[in-house]
């Protein structure tokens, strides 16, 4: 089971009126674009010993 990441605003127009769609995507009511949010992981800087 995967959990859905919740965006707070549209990455295209900045509108905050987002609605969930099928397949884990989001519909922006402002620009009518549909997009997904995917978590890729964490990145830590390499630390050299010494």
What does it look like?
A hairpin with a 5-residue loop joins strand 2 and strand 3. The protein has a domain at 6-37. It is an all-beta fold and 50 residues long. The protein has no helices and three strands. Strands 1-2-3 form a three-stranded antiparallel β-sheet, with no helix packed on it. The mean pLDDT is 88. It is 0% helix and 20% strand. One of its GO terms (biological process) is translation. This is Insertion element protein. It comes from Amycolatopsis coloradensis.
Which descriptors would you attach to this protein?
50 residues, mainly beta, 3-stranded antiparallel β-sheet, 3 strands, 20% strand, elongated, Insertion element protein
Q: How would you describe the shape? A: elongated
Give the helix level as a range of percent.
Answer: under 10%
Query: How can the largest sheet be summarized?
Result: 3 strands, antiparallel
Q: Give the ordered list of helices and strands.
A: EEE
Helix-strand category = mainly beta
Strand runs, count: 3
Q: What is the rounded distance between the termini? A: 42 Å
Q: For the residues shown, what is the average pLDDT?
A: 88
Strand content: 15-25%
State the low-pLDDT regions, or none: none
Radius of gyration: 16 Å
Q: List the total number of helices.
A: 0
Order of strands side by side in the largest beta sheet? 1-2-3
InterPro entries: Ribosomal_zn-bd
Protein name: Insertion element protein
């Amino acid at each position: 089971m995967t959990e859905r990441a919740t965006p707070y605003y549209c990455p295209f127009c900045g509108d905050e009126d987002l609605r969930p769609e099928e397949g884990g995507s989001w519909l922006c009511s402002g620009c009518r674009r549909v997009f997904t949010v995917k978590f890729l992981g964490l990145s830590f800087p390499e630390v050299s010993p010494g």
